[in-house]
Structures are given as C-alpha cells and as structure tokens.
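FAQ: What does the model actually see?

It sees only this:
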Amino acid sequence: MATCYATVPFTITTFIGVLMSRFLSINEQTFIGLVLGIGVAFTALLIFFGILTVHQFTVMKNIFSIILTIAGMAFIVFLILLFAGVFDEMFRYIAGVITEIQLRM
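And it is asked to produce this:
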C-alpha cells in the first residue's frame, strides 16, 4: 500500500508538468523539468521510507534490499531478452530451412 500512496506526488507533478507545457515556451522547459524532478525525488523518498516503515528494516538493510530487487529485475529482463533473441534466431532458421525446401521442390 505504501508504494501506491507514494506515487501520488509523481502523478500530481506529471499533471502539473503537462499543464505547464501547454502555457510555457520551449525556453522555459527548465521549470517543467524542475517540477517533474521534484515529483520523482519526493516519490522516491516516500517509497524508501514506506518500505523502511512497513518492513521495519534498518536504513542499510533497506538500501541493500532495494539494490537486490533492482538487480533481480535487471536479471529477469536480461533472461527475457536472451530467450526472445534465441527464439527469434530459431524461427528465422526454421523459416530459412522451409524456404530452401520449397526452392528445391
């Protein structure tokens, strides 16, 4: 639940950034970036302290847990991309074999 509530500032600042982009020029894009940056930073802090409170971790254990979670997600994305590449090569090989068989007939 804490992460759900923690994303509210990001949602609000994104909405404010969209509204600001309708009225500000391209030269004033820095202000939009500042608002979005504040929203992301505040959301990250709320998520950090939410995890810290809910799981009753120490600060170092919380940081270690977040790093391990991000590393695990990166590993899963790597595996998905690896299998997608292998299956793509396999289907290309099979399609090439079928094409060669059709040309020989």
